[in-house]
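Attaching the record inline, Q. Sequence:
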Amino acid sequence: MRIISISILVLLVINGCIATKPSKENEWVKLFNGKDLNDWFIKIHHHDIGENFGDTFKAEDGIIKVRYDKYGDFNDQFGHLYYKVPFSYYHLKLEYRFVGQLQKGAPGYTLRNSGVMFHSQDPRTMPKEQDWPISIEFQFLGGLGDGKPRPTGNMCFRVPKWYMKEKLMNGTVSILNRKLMMATNGSKQK
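Structure, as predicted:
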C-alpha cells in the first residue's frame, strides 16, 4: 500500500481532494514536491478550473500556503486543491496549521475550518458556479482562542444544492433538510 506524505500550511480554508492507488507495499509517495503546484488542479468557486484567483494557493518555503489576502470581499470563493492523479487505496499523512483571521465576507463557520475531501468529484466536471465538490470531507477545526475545545476530525458529506435537486430527486433517493430520505417501493425511510 502506498503511504502519502504532504505538509500543508493552512491560512484560512483549504479543501484538497487527495486519493491514491495501489503500489509497492509501504512505499511513501510524496504528493507535494515542495516547489510548485504543477501536479495539482485548482478550482475556486465562481472561477474556471486552473484559475488561481488572488494567488490563493502557493508553493512557498517547501509548503502549500492558502491565502485570501488578495480577495477583497470573500464572495463565497471557496478554494479546492486536487492532486491530478486519482487514487483509491491509500493512507494519508499530513501536517496542517491555521494562522490569520477570518477573511472579510467569509461565513463565520469558516474560521479555522479546513479539511481533506476524499472520493471527490473530478474538478474538471464541476461547473464554474459549483461551490463544493461532491465528496466526503475529513474536517479540520482549529481552536478559536476562547479556551473551549473544538472537535476536529469530523466527517462531512458534501453535495451541492443543484445536484440534490437535479440528480438525486429521482424517486429513489432524496435529501430534505440535511436528512437523507430514501424511498423504497414508495415508502419513505429516514
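Confidence is low (pLDDT under 50) at residues 1-22, 167-190. The helical segments are 161-166.

More tomorrow.
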